[in-house]
Amino acid sequence: MKKIIDGIIVVEGTGDSSFLSSFIDALFIETNGYDIKHEDIDFLQNCNKKIIVLTDSDSAGDTIRDRLSKELPNAVHIKVNSNKCNKNGKHGVAECEKEEILNVLKEHFIKSKTSEQMVTLNDLISLTKEQKEIKKSISNFYHLGTFKNKEMLKRLNVLNITKEQIEREVFGTYGNK
After folding, report:
1. What is the pLDDT of residues 81-130, one digit of tens each?
2. ∠107-160-19 over CA atoms, to 5°?
3. Of residues 85, 5, 68, the one with CA closest to residue 31
4. Hey, what domains does the chain have and what are their CATH numbers?
5. Fewer CB within 10 Å of terminal CB in the chain, N or C?
């Protein structure tokens, strides 16, 4: 069973998020090295969830942590021990043993999710099928960034936003788009 973090884990790349998501249930945002998107920073600055920055113990990881400390002052910064996280000459999050990751994140796990999925894919499609501007309005209102439906859905759900809330807050009146 996956361990649960009620929040967001920022990692360096797809290898890290792929590895971690195999045993941790959380929303993962990838910096793609130094190139974290402005819309991801905006989302993180405007969300009310715990943000954990989990980067490698190298100069790239240090640079990313330094930048994100300025942009996200309330984020928790964790770096992995390069002596415990190495495979085939590489050192980093994706090269860690599962137990090492569980150990460095242990204080951030929760026992269970507080709620199930707030917005379903069908809800999102029903809200946005009429025009692309509606999807953009939802994304802008909640600072989600521009994504395909599945990523947008993940971000809405990590924020615990309901379909009714979207209808009320984005469209102005409940049930009347």
Report:
1. 878 888 887 888 999 999 999 999 999 998 876 655 678 888 877 777 66
2. 50
3. 68
4. 3-108 (3.40.1360.10), 121-169 (no CATH)
5. N
Q: 93: which strand partners? A: none
Q: Residue 91: which of 53, 54, 57 has the closest Cα?
A: 57
**87: helix, coil or strand?**
strand
User: 97: how many CB neighbours lie within 10 A of its CB?
Assistant: 12
Pair of tokens at residue 154: 């993940």
pTM: 0.83
Q: Residue 174 — very low, low, confident or very high, per pLDDT cuts 50/70/90? A: very low
Contacts of 119 (CB under 8 A, 6+ apart): 153, 156, 157, 161, 162, 163, 166
**Which residue spans within 31-147 are E strands per DSSP?**
50-55, 76-79, 86-87, 90-91
Kindly tell me the sign of the dihedral angle through the C-alpha atoms of 160, 161, 163, 165.
Answer: positive
CA–CA dist 52, 11 (Å, integer): 9
